[in-house]
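Fold it.
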Amino acid sequence: MKNKIYPYNPKLKQVASMLRKNMTLSKVFLWLELKGKKMMGYDFHRQKPTGDYIVDFYCPALELINEIGGDNHIDKYKEDLVRQKKWNLGV
Protein backbone atom coordinates (compact mmCIF):
# COMPACT_ATOMS: atom_id res chain seq x y z
CA MET A 1 0.00 0.00 0.00
CA LYS A 2 1.40 3.38 -1.00
CA ASN A 3 1.28 5.97 1.76
CA LYS A 4 -0.71 9.11 1.14
CA ILE A 5 1.58 12.09 1.44
CA TYR A 6 0.19 15.17 3.10
CA PRO A 7 1.88 18.34 1.84
CA TYR A 8 4.70 19.53 4.08
CA ASN A 9 4.71 23.21 4.96
CA PRO A 10 8.26 24.38 5.78
CA LYS A 11 6.85 27.67 7.16
CA LEU A 12 5.48 25.68 10.12
CA LYS A 13 8.73 23.86 10.93
CA GLN A 14 9.81 26.25 13.69
CA VAL A 15 6.35 26.28 15.29
CA ALA A 16 6.19 22.46 15.16
CA SER A 17 9.58 22.26 16.85
CA MET A 18 8.40 24.59 19.62
CA LEU A 19 5.25 22.49 20.10
CA ARG A 20 7.33 19.30 20.38
CA LYS A 21 9.39 20.92 23.13
CA ASN A 22 6.30 22.11 25.01
CA MET A 23 3.83 19.23 24.76
CA THR A 24 1.00 18.85 27.24
CA LEU A 25 1.28 16.04 29.75
CA SER A 26 -1.35 13.96 27.93
CA LYS A 27 0.59 14.29 24.66
CA VAL A 28 3.84 13.34 26.40
CA PHE A 29 2.25 10.18 27.82
CA LEU A 30 0.81 9.19 24.44
CA TRP A 31 4.13 9.90 22.69
CA LEU A 32 5.93 7.62 25.14
CA GLU A 33 3.63 4.81 23.94
CA LEU A 34 3.92 5.63 20.22
CA LYS A 35 7.58 6.48 19.70
CA GLY A 36 10.08 3.88 18.60
CA LYS A 37 7.41 1.88 16.77
CA LYS A 38 6.05 0.57 20.08
CA MET A 39 2.47 0.60 18.78
CA MET A 40 2.29 -2.64 16.78
CA GLY A 41 5.45 -1.69 14.84
CA TYR A 42 3.99 1.46 13.28
CA ASP A 43 6.05 4.62 12.88
CA PHE A 44 4.43 7.78 14.28
CA HIS A 45 5.49 11.39 13.90
CA ARG A 46 4.60 14.07 16.44
CA GLN A 47 3.69 17.68 15.77
CA LYS A 48 3.80 17.10 12.01
CA PRO A 49 3.28 20.12 9.72
CA THR A 50 0.66 19.17 7.11
CA GLY A 51 -0.63 21.84 4.79
CA ASP A 52 -1.76 24.79 6.91
CA TYR A 53 -1.91 22.75 10.13
CA ILE A 54 0.31 21.02 12.64
CA VAL A 55 -1.19 17.69 13.66
CA ASP A 56 -0.38 16.14 17.02
CA PHE A 57 0.45 12.61 15.81
CA TYR A 58 0.67 11.13 12.32
CA CYS A 59 1.19 7.54 11.16
CA PRO A 60 1.96 7.45 7.41
CA ALA A 61 1.43 3.69 7.02
CA LEU A 62 -2.10 3.90 8.43
CA GLU A 63 -2.83 7.38 7.03
CA LEU A 64 -3.87 8.15 10.60
CA ILE A 65 -3.89 11.60 12.15
CA ASN A 66 -4.55 11.82 15.87
CA GLU A 67 -5.41 15.15 17.47
CA ILE A 68 -5.44 15.36 21.25
CA GLY A 69 -8.12 17.83 22.31
CA GLY A 70 -7.46 20.31 25.03
CA ASP A 71 -7.88 23.96 25.88
CA ASN A 72 -6.70 24.96 22.41
CA HIS A 73 -9.77 23.25 20.91
CA ILE A 74 -12.38 24.80 23.22
CA ASP A 75 -14.95 26.76 21.20
CA LYS A 76 -13.23 25.77 17.94
CA TYR A 77 -15.68 23.14 16.74
CA LYS A 78 -16.28 24.93 13.43
CA GLU A 79 -12.57 25.37 12.72
CA ASP A 80 -11.90 21.73 13.60
CA LEU A 81 -14.74 20.63 11.31
CA VAL A 82 -13.32 22.67 8.39
CA ARG A 83 -9.88 21.11 8.94
CA GLN A 84 -11.31 17.59 9.07
CA LYS A 85 -13.28 18.07 5.87
CA LYS A 86 -10.31 19.66 4.10
CA TRP A 87 -8.11 16.65 4.89
CA ASN A 88 -10.94 14.16 4.39
CA LEU A 89 -10.46 12.99 7.94
CA GLY A 90 -14.05 12.18 8.66
CA VAL A 91 -16.26 13.78 11.24
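The chain has a mean pLDDT of 82.
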